[in-house]
Prior knowledge:
The longest helix is centred in the middle third of the chain and has 14 residues, at 134-147. The model is unreliable at 187-194 (pLDDT under 50). A hairpin with a 6-residue loop joins strand 7 and strand 8. This protein has helices at residues 65-77, 134-147, 152-165, 168-181, 193-205, 209-214; strands spanning 3-10, 23-26, 47-48, 50-51, 84-93, 99-105, 115-118, 125-129. With 215 residues, the chain is α+β, with helices and mostly antiparallel strands. Strands 1, 2, 3, 4, 5, 6, 7 and 8 form an 8-stranded mixed sheet that branches. It is elongated, with a radius of gyration of 20 Å.
Amino acid sequence: MPFLTIKGVFNPKNGVPDGDSVRFLADDDSLFDRLEGRVEFKSDGEVQLRYEGIDALEKAAIKPFSSDATERNIKLLGGEENGQPGYILSKQIEKNGRPVCFVFTGDPEDADGSEIILEAETNEVIANWGPRPEPARKLIADYKEANGVVDETVKIALQKWYLQDKGLTTQNELLTLLKRLFRKNDSKCFYTKKFLFVIYSYCKSLQLHKFLSLV
Length: 215
């Protein structure tokens, strides 16, 4: 399952941060609905993150090790002040309602809501797509930049674009992605039955016949 890009800000002053967790306020909290599991929102709309692959000492553990981990975490996030810009890559929410995620500072190269596939050993981004076909993404982004909102006018324009495009752009973008991922004789190929089934089902729903003939 790909990781989902979620933009927002880190708020280390809120809650009780430690070496592997911090409060995060997403720009679009509806994106959490696309993760596996149910997120727990705090009263101010924030969520508590749980870092992927890191298990630091608990804050009550022997010091200075636990406090050193917390201080290092806050420094890497950009400092103690709230509102540190950044983003997370996540695909699931753990039992306590916290998104399990990789954490990054600054702005992502990909759009908010993009799906990212990482190379398992290096965490290198090897493929990304979304949250919609590139021309449709640009239509929304340009309108929002010019008008400050995503209103009914641009939503109608977006639907007209989808009707005229008939899924061809999505087909070609996913076909390019598939060729990049499933290179012949690649020992690190992600060609699994589960992933292929997801792609097949998605393409079938869009009646992408060229894509289906390939897989």
